[in-house]
Write a structure and sequence with these properties.
single chain, alpha+beta, 5-stranded mixed sheet, 5-stranded antiparallel sheet, 27 helices, 48% helix
Length: 678
């Protein structure tokens, strides 16, 4: 049997590896606990563990001195006077095979053989461990004796020893899970100097070593948390942080999705430690008046999302399930876990590989911060419906007659023709009104909510008015119509020409002129009538309704939920097949579609589900349909926008709460599922 004193050095290596800064401290109770856990994983008997801890407390200081997770360091080759000065200037110490900063892992400089320090050429230097020989490990042999293990330690294809976490990652998802970010930590730190937050966030060890999370994502989140927002440096893109093939979106939404995925794979203690570290760091960032792409809202959503996912898992699989791994919406990660990316749901943001018995099951999740005011589609009427789908008089966009635009122009022409005298008299005396500026400002505010656009409206009308007065002085018989406005503005764009007309009409309305009032109301009514006709047509046309539902499905994937391929997680609530059945009385999407109706009389028009549920006639609003003119009275085109109906989020919340809300706290505290709960 191997004597305890002979294996202390081996255990030191493992202990130092587990401690984040590589410097175990026998006076630190957390470090002692790390030591105990590492030996327990090696199945060492309790009496051996006790003896090792006692020996290490006495011998540790003599064995480890500044070499980090290594064996005894090689003697440093002598430095020249210039080399010594350089080492002192940079705060470098000898680390067994090169020089690096004290308290930091890795080496940054080498001795060139002449006593001078030179930076490491990272292209040629393979970043080998800081010892020339591989650390040995202790294991239990089949006969229960302690033996030494070194030759059979796993290595990657380049011959570098792999960490235990990386070895476990590769067992789960191969190289895809163990590969680091494309930019090294040292290079990123140098690149991010100007954007570094005052407070430095360090990812908890339990998260760094969680093999269920692809390694590069722990690096990504840590880097984002240490980076102040700076769009000029393009740090709102994942490539800035060294990520290659990743999901869609900018850094903030990507970080939000990854926080949810990572938290879902963690056990309760790890999860609490993770979010505590996040909250503390964000508090210090805020105190420094700084801002990162990880916001409080995304952290809150991640807490709620992960909790909701776990509640759903427990409801579905009971107390006997285990989360094997999490993956983002990345093809390589899906396939690394043995799943077909081609069968993925349209809105999937992450998947969870769940082990139930001997079977690995894929659970796909579409993440939303909430349903409230969720925009499902925002475009023009012309982009929402392909050419030929709407009747000709309702079509808009390129290559169409655009009857709405023609009706609008006709009404403007009529305004100038029938009211020429009244309009001329109004403009002649407009400068004598002491409230002119005040009235114009009110009109601008009514036409646009953005201050910048309001200023443009005011300036445009003042410029027009100045030119009109100049032209009127030269030609007392000047006729004001659309052609004159186009010449005045030096443009033929319908939107710009008719914008002046509607400003004029609104100005006259504010002054109580009935002709101005009638003109403005007629323009509004033309737009509303066109929108009503479109809504009515959608309601009576299966083809048009399907086009609308397809756009809804892209953002609110109820069909995928019905198929069982996706679950929607909205903060702390879930839309699953079970939730769908509670809401609609069926989880069959085809049956849901049959009962969907467009209500053109609602304000705004709604897509509603109308059916008998539990014997009662029910109307459930799903989405609003916003068909409104883009530039009221002058735009010539309609916007087509869909949002989640105001009450639908409440209906979902109530159904989800009824199904999943009673599962906290869990009733089976000694199961894997329970340990995954918060």
């Amino acid at each position: 049997m191997t004597h305890i004193s002979e294996i202390i050095e081996d255990i030191l290596v493992e202990w130092a590896y587990r401690v984040h800064d590589g410097m175990p401290n026998p006076k630190n109770t957390e470090h002692i606990q790390e030591l105990r856990e590492s030996m327990e994983e090696l199945n060492l008997p309790n009496n051996v563990i006790y003896q090792v801890i006692q020996n290490l407390i006495n011998e540790q200081q003599q064995t480890i001195k500044g070499t980090g997770p290594t064996q005894k360091a090689k003697k440093a080759p002598p430095l020249s006077d210039a080399g010594k000065k350089e080492a002192e200037k940079l705060g470098l110490i000898w680390k067994g095979r090169g020089y690096g900063k004290e308290g930091e892992t890795g080496i940054t400089h080498k001795n060139d053989g002449k006593g001078n320090l030179i930076p490491i050429d990272k292209k040629s230097d393979t970043q080998q461990p800081e010892t020339d020989t591989e650390p040995k490990r202790t294991k239990i042999s089949k006969d229960g004796k302690l033996t030494k293990k070194g030759d059979d330690k796993e290595k990657d294809t380049e011959g570098k020893p792999k960490s235990k976490a990386d070895s476990q990652r590769e067992k789960i998802g191969g190289k895809t899970y163990s590969e680091p970010a494309e930019t090294s930590d040292e290079d990123f730190k140098a690149k991010n100097t100007d954007n570094q937050t005052t407070t430095t966030f360090k990812m908890p060890e339990s998260v760094l070593n969680n093999p269920k999370i692809p390694k590069k994502y722990t690096q990504f989140i840590e880097r984002v948390l240490n980076t102040q927002q700076n769009v000029k440096d393009k740090n709102n893109k994942s490539s800035y942080y060294g990520l290659g093939k990743v999901g869609k979106g900018d850094t903030d939404s990507q970080a939000g999705e990854l926080l949810s995925m990572m938290a879902t794979t963690m056990r309760r203690k790890e999860r609490d430690e993770f979010f505590k570290a996040l909250d503390e760091h964000l508090s210090m960032v805020e105190a420094s008046s700084e801002k990162t792409y990880v916001s409080r809202a995304w952290v809150k959503a991640a807490k709620e999302n992960s909790s909701a996912i776990l509640r759903m898992m427990y409801d579905k699989y009971g107390d006997d399930y285990e989360i094997v791994a999490g993956a983002w919406d990345v093809k390589e990660e899906f396939e690394a876990l043995g799943f077909d990316y081609g069968e993925k749901g349209d809105s999937t943001d992450m998947i969870v590989a769940v082990k139930v018995g001997d079977t690995i099951i894929k659970e796909e999740v579409s993440l939303k911060q909430s349903l409230k005011n969720q925009r499902l589609w925002n475009g023009t009427l012309g982009s929402a419906f392909e050419s030929g789908l709407l009747p000709q008089h309702l079509e808009q966009g390129k290559g169409t007659v655009n009857q709405f635009e023609q009706n609008q122009i006709k009404n403007i022409d009529n305004f100038f023709q029938t009211n020429q005298t009244n309009i001329g008299e109004y403009l002649k005396n407009i400068g004598d009104n002491p409230d002119f500026d005040k009235i114009l400002k009110k009109v601008a505010n009514d036409m646009d909510t953005k201050p910048k656009n309001q200023d443009i409206i005011i300036n445009q009308f003042n410029d027009f008015l100045a030119q009109y007065k100049k032209d009127l002085a030269e030609n007392p018989d000047l006729v004001l119509d659309r052609d004159y406005i186009a010449k005045n503005l030096k443009t033929s764009k319908k939107r710009n020409v008719d914008k002046i007309s509607i400003i004029l009409g609104r100005m006259m309305t504010e002054s109580g002129d009935e002709l101005g009032i009638n003109f403005v109301e007629q323009q509004k009514e033309i737009a509303k009538e066109h929108a009503r006709e479109v809504a009515n047509f959608i309601n009576g046309s299966d083809e048009a309704k399907n086009a609308v539902l397809k756009k809804v499905q892209e953002k609110l994937p109820l069909k995928s939920v019905s198929d069982g391929s996706e679950n929607i997680v909205l903060g702390e609530y879930v839309i699953s097949k079970k939730t769908m059945k509670a809401i609609f009385g069926t989880d069959d999407w085809n049956q849901v579609v049959e009962q969907l109706k467009v209500n053109p009389d609602a304000d705004p028009p709604m897509i509603e589900y109308r059916a008998k549920i539990d014997g009662q006639d029910k109307v459930i609003p799903i989405t609003t349909i916003g068909i409104r003119e883009d530039g009221e009275g002058y735009g010539g085109k309609h916007k087509f926008e869909m949002k989640v109906a105001p009450d639908f989020d409440k209906i979902v919340a109530n159904a989800s709460q009824d199904i999943y809300g009673d599962q906290e706290p869990i009733k089976f505290p000694n199961t894997p599922a329970a340990d995954l709960r918060r």
